[in-house]
Amino acid sequence: MEQQRVFxxxxxxxxxxxxxQYLFTPPPExxxxxxxxxxxxxxxxxxxxxxxxxGARPDGAQVPGDAGTPGQPAAPQRVIxxxxxxxxTSANFRATFTxxxxxxxxxxxxxxxxxxxxxxLIKPRPVDEETPVGExxxxxxxxxxxxxxxxxxxxxETMYEVASKTDQGVVFRHEVAGxxxxxxxxxxxxxxxxxxxxxxxxxxxxxxxxxxxxxxxLYGYEHHEDGEWSLFDPMPDIVEALCHVDGDDERAARAxxxxxxxxxxxxxxxxxxxRYFLMALLADPKGADQAEGAGALASCHFSLxxxxxxxxxxxxxxxxxxPGERRSWQFGTYLGPKLVETLETYGVxxxxxxxxxxxxxxxKPIRWLLILFxxxxxxxxxxxxxxxxxxxxxTFPINHSAYKNMEGxxxxxxxxxALREKYKDDPMKQQELMMKLxxxxxxxxxxxxxxxxxxxxxxxxxxxxxxxxEIYHAGFVGWYTDLSAPDPYFVLPVLxxxxxxxxxxMMPQTTTNPQMKIVMWVMPIMFGVFTFVLPSGLGxxxxxxIGLGITQQYxxxxxxxxxxxxxxxxxx
Length: 572
Known about the structure:
Elements: H1 3-24, E1 86-89, E2 93-98, E3 103-109, E4 144-146, E5 161-165, E6 169-176, E7 180-188, E8 196-204, E9 210-221, E10 240-245, E11 248-252, H2 254-257, E12 261-273, E13 277-283, E14 297-305, E15 309-321, E16 326-337, H3 340-344, H4 360-377, H5 380-394, H6 396-411, H7 413-422, H8 427-441, H9 454-467, H10 491-505, H11 514-533, H12 536-571
Antiparallel strand pairs: 1-2, 2-3, 4-9, 5-6, 6-7, 7-8, 8-16, 9-15, 10-11, 10-12, 12-13, 12-14, 13-16, 14-15
Helix pairs in contact: 1-11, 4-5, 4-9, 5-12, 6-12, 7-8, 10-11, 10-12
């Protein structure tokens, strides 16, 4: 019941959570060959549901522009030169587009400076220095478009003409003579500092009615060895496909997407996210009643390709166009760090992409306090220290009562040991006299139970530091240039181990079980090992929190000793 048991409870709770995730998460299955753009698919081959180059529907029916349609022989496709240096630059980012699919090829964060080290959000980062990034990722660039079967010669890698390019935007055009013309526009928008406007329009160029469903595809990359839970990576940085429907985020990690996940709309945004960064397509907030077809996304479909590329396919809804008729869609985008205050400005609940889990009700105020303190001192490490002091003050009454009880328990160890020895053959009598001893000394064997209330606070802070992008590449002092990463020189883990060991010496050793005693002394080592892989910001919190606990215990002990000396002096 003493404080070491509190830490034991924390460790056991962590163990239960880790064991549950390890035992009950379904193992990943090998991706099916020949499905989508998976390993069994030849380069350039289109996934099921993509329009084949011949323009045939899956049922074999002819569509406008098909070869063999009476009076409309197939027009030869023009040869379009590759253009991959189409750059749009804003104050916060640099975006590079390619006309191969009219897609985004690179996206670099320029501001705030804190997030610039993340580098290109599109190109996968190498696992290590010895593992280069292959060219496979070039097949999986975001903002590619496909149809459902009625749009001939449309795939993710269709070559688009560069219709126009200015400092403010780029327009891609794909036209199939006698069938349709599709335009994609990427335009800088001052109202969207972390993204651009994305506009799509299609015009029926045939003499027949045109009906189809357009879909926009976004991708995220996660190496097949990443994202797996382990003892030394208790909260891996998982890439997820997500879609915001009915006020909730529908998410799919790699294991879920491997089997395919379909989410029916309407959705106000969807995309791909990781712990700290988000890429999302935002439906026009004006709603679905606009004459030009703006509005919510009709559906989201999550899938996995080649075992490492997570896809979020966002349906724009069906359309039917008479000859010469045109239809348009307008979207916002967000690409960048998951800064809650920035996300809130978009007015579409993008801030819900920051996933705090079941401790969100505690994580949100803790994060607010952390940002408040950082605003005061201008240093995230110092802000964590101030937050630790604040949380200790908040729980001071609970801790003070528990420490006083522990000190009382420590003082009655000798009488308790004598009772156990004297009445070792009479457990009932032994228990009766112990209860009397507790009452006379004003202590309780359950006096430390209220400290268990601090466990949710610990987990909430753990989650907050792990999930808040404000800690990403946030500096403290010296070599602590990224509080979201482990301590590179292991100073904090060693100090945490030492201060926890010192705390054990201050605890009353009430247990007679030798195995339990061993566990109590192993606890500091175990927590020290955990700290080796935890963010240094969390290690800093643990070190300061334990140090404050020891200080509080020390003053309580001194006050007890002073009171005892006064009682002895009065008795003399």
